[in-house]
Amino acid sequence: MNLNDLKIFEAVANYGSFTKAAEAMYTVQSNVTARIKSLEEEFDAALFSRSSRKVELTQAGETLMLYSKKLNHLIEEAKQSIGKDDVVKGQIKIGALETMIALKGPELVNSLANRFPHVHMDFKSDTKENLLNEVLNYRLDAAFIPAPLDLPQLEQFKIKTEEIIAVVPFTCKSLQDLLKQIPLKAIVFDQGCVFRSRLDSWLVSKGISRYHKTEMNSIEGVINFIESGIGFSFLPKEIISTFYSSRNIRTFTLPKELSIMTTILAYRKDIPISPALNAFLSVCDLHAKSD
Known about the structure:
This protein is of the alpha/beta class. Helices cover 48% and strands 23% of the residues. It has 3 domains: 79 residues, Winged helix-like DNA-binding domain superfamily/Winged helix DNA-binding domain (Arc Repressor Mutant, subunit A), CATH 1.10.10.10; 101 residues, Periplasmic binding protein-like II (D-Maltodextrin-Binding Protein, domain 2, 3-Layer(aba) Sandwich); 99 residues, Periplasmic binding protein-like II (D-Maltodextrin-Binding Protein, domain 2, 3-Layer(aba) Sandwich), CATH 3.40.190. The termini are far apart. The mean pLDDT is 89.
């Protein structure tokens, strides 16, 4: 076993595919397969469960991943200690709801680039459930998600509390008028979206279990459809006031139990925090204190 074997191992875990791991590591799939087989023989355990659709870590694979991450951390520490300077370097992968990326992503990236120019960051947007799965499976270093979080494996760092509001076509004069529409039409994100789940909860509280859904995968698309009179949605108030206050839409407040959302940054407890992730946490802390 050598460090490159562990890098290949992490790539397979990250991409969930031998083929994609080979592309990322600039090698051929047969080499990836051979290196994983060699590791499995050395540890006398299957590191991945393989199916026609995906490749996932086994329990033994998760254990090796922990040690691999710790080794990476020690190597980075050694580079920092032995190197000619104390410049923080590295790459991190961060996940977030699309609304979080749109609102806070640019300023976080800009602050990170200004304070730590040698730390590079990849942002990925997805639903809360998928983001948590990516963090738990070591594919993301951390993720911005809505609270609450009840997973003992993850550390959580409070980022901000924000308000969710109802966003409706301009012709709609009140929420009461909205609820009278037949059929009632909503513009929603994919299943698992926190805004969609709160919209569903609100409608159920009003005795409505069925409504017409149009799924969109972008905030701009949702706003365009609302402005066109197609339907309504739930979105963060700050998104609307910052980017869409001049659009031909109306907004209404919601009950407190549905409107308050706290965003946290979640990351694994059981592996050391890399210098790059620590740098990002310091940037998040500064922005959380300034909000």
